[in-house]
Amino acid sequence: MSLFSPVRVGALTLKSRVVMAPMTRNRTPGQVPNALNAEYYAQRASAGLIVTEGTTPDASGRGYIDIPGLYNAAQVEGWRQVAGAVHAKGGHIFVQLMHTGRISHPDFLDGAAPVAPSAIAAPGEIYTHEGMKPHGTPRALEAAEIPALIATYGRAATLAREAGLDGVEVHGANGYLPGQFLAPNVNQRTDEWGGSVENRARFLLGAVDAAVAAIGADRVGVRLSPGGVFNDIHDPDAPATYAYVAGELAKRNLAYLHIFDTKPGFDVAALIRAHYKGTLILNGGYDRARAEADIASGLADLIAFGVPFLANPDLPERLAQGAALNTPDQASFYGGGAKGYTDYPALAA
Ligand SMILES: Cc1cc2nc3c(=O)[nH]c(=O)nc-3n(C[C@H](O)[C@H](O)[C@H](O)COP(=O)(O)O)c2cc1C
């Protein structure tokens, strides 16, 4: 099996196992995907699968400047433009559903407090239209409002299909809302949404089940970062937490499970593989040699590339040829216009 062999992923047959990892680029003012966003993704349509930047399934999940949403009619039209541009070039695209939970600020929420499992502030600051501000203390969700929030993942999945997107990835990684529920230091609830691992996983699994009920398991993927500490996540029992979650996801026959391995001090890929026999995407610092090795050994079915794809619109071709890669410009990762977004050159034809 090679990185460049086709692979069946849920409802789709992909041309290769090279995936574009989800990357927030903060270039969607008004939360409605635009022509520049469509051009950026279309440039990268040679990926086997594109996973879009984190996209909020609900207005309460807006957490960063100028990130897209998928909860109203204008956004559906915006995403239709993106999906159409990618499909016209033979690509496939899943939208990543990211509710940021406490990693937000009232400035993004019409003055309302961000929502979270518990009223525990994330340390640090967030970049707002008025510069850096502390996150502040979120509002703990009432148990009675959680089912409606979970249902927004189903609604967003339905809207994704309406827009012509191929499926959705539920973002359970990197300390956003589902990851906040999973983490004992952020989730101190004593009701059925906190405490035991079964209770802490209930939000994530509920969101996944809502998306599955809306569009079918073969169009739903999930992203996790087991043991990851980004956004002040601390789980002293991370291997047990993620063994349970992987086992529960395995029962659902999803399109894929996508793991961002942040090397937390245990063997993340081996742990997940032991509990998850379905299609597995691995990510985190890959180059071609490591990608080929992990696919050949059966550890991974596909490999996602983040920064290399950001800086190289024709990454699969460059990997296949062993060509040199463009240098990423970190200063233009988050926000701005075409510079550092759609102006990275492809190889000369
Ligand atoms: C600019 C940037 C934005 C990112 N935004 C997201 C995001 O919205 N959702 C997500 O799950 N991961 C996000 N990530 C993490 C990447 O998907 C990926 O896990 C990380 O870059 C490691 O992969 P790499 O070593 O191939 O770059 C982001 C990374 C970068 C560099």
UniProtKB/TrEMBL annotation:
Pfam families given in the database record: Oxidored_FMN
InterPro entries: Aldolase_TIM (IPR013785), OxRdtase_FMN_N (IPR001155), Oye-like (IPR045247)
UniProt xrefs under SUPFAM superfamilies: FMN-linked oxidoreductases
Domain NADH:flavin oxidoreductase/NADH oxidase N-terminal: 2-325
Stated name of the protein: Alkene reductase
Organism of derivation: Sediminicoccus rosea
Lineage of origin: Bacteria, Pseudomonadati, Pseudomonadota, Alphaproteobacteria, Acetobacterales
